[in-house]
Specification:
289 residues; disulfide bond; Leu-rich_rpt_typical-subtyp; two-stranded parallel sheet; 5 helices; alpha/beta; single chain; binds 2-acetamido-2-deoxy-beta-D-glucopyranose; 21% helix
Amino acid sequence: MGTRLRTLICTFVFASWVSLASGTQYQQNSHHTKKDLLPKEQAHLIEADLAADNAKTNTLFLADPPDNSSSSSVDGDTLDLPTCLLCVCLTGSVYCEEVDPDMTSVPALPKETAYLYARYNKIKKITAKDFGDIVTLKRIDLTGNLISEIEDGAFVKLTLLEELSLAENQLVRLPILPVKLTSFNANHNNLKTKGVKANAFKKLTKLRNLYLAHNQLEAVPVIPESVVILHIQNNNISTVNTDTFCKSNDTYYIRPNMNEIRMDGNPVILAQYPNSFTCLQSLPIGRYH
Ligand SMILES: *[C@@H]1O[C@H](CO)[C@@H](O)[C@H](O)[C@H]1NC(C)=O
Ligand SMILES: *[C@@H]1O[C@H](CO)[C@@H](O)[C@H](O)[C@H]1NC(C)=O
Ligand SMILES: *[C@@H]1O[C@H](CO)[C@@H](O)[C@H](O)[C@H]1NC(C)=O
């Protein structure tokens, strides 16, 4: 593919992208397609990413070189990879959204991929080999697939991974998560308490956003102190105890970062657990019994 053609495709993709990101708010009120159901936090991610990627795209425009073809900004390896015929590969980013024909497993990724967007495909399973060599990954978005199984080793080698979305899949259990994560989204799955160990997040000391809404959890896992936003609404949580958010042996403890908890849509009666929330700077938002 010539550089110009590639530039044209990029322009097209990004134009759609911009209209998607900026249209999210409006579309929520009109007809609903699956993209409209995009959680707000996802839209923010995409916007932030756009900003980051615009810089790269612009370079691609400006640097459009006189046609001595080997000077493409995409290296030879990448051009040969079938993934980049189905998906859009930019330096460091791979966009595979609603790929046709159906994509049922994680595609082979170019070396040094940092951002993977593979939303709204039909991926069913993530194996330990899928991301094995791509230790450069910083963000993986697998929203809206059919994932019901993830091998425990799938993400452990990804020591740079900061953002992971597995939202709108069919998971009943979570794999081991890498410790540098700052944002984890597993909204709209079938997660059970048995599949989310109490200490699943304990070691993730950089975690800021944790989304576990619309699952079947019956207990709140240990929430690291770094967490700022916790969404765990619409689960089956019927009790909380003092140690869920606070420290039972330290009545002066104030949880430092947490400023948004959603627990609505659970059978828990918050008024029965007044001591469980005294260490929070703001109470859970939403409606409660
Ligand atoms: C491409 O152009 C650059 C600078 O104009 C030159 O240094 C390089 O050798 C050229 N490459 C080929 C394959 O002709
Ligand atoms: C919700 O949790 C209760 C136990 O607290 C259990 O008896 C019930 O079956 C659960 N409901 C669902 C839909 O899992
Ligand atoms: C409370 O318990 C934890 C762990 O059990 C301990 O590390 C901490 O020092 C205790 N705090 C106080 C104030 O006793």
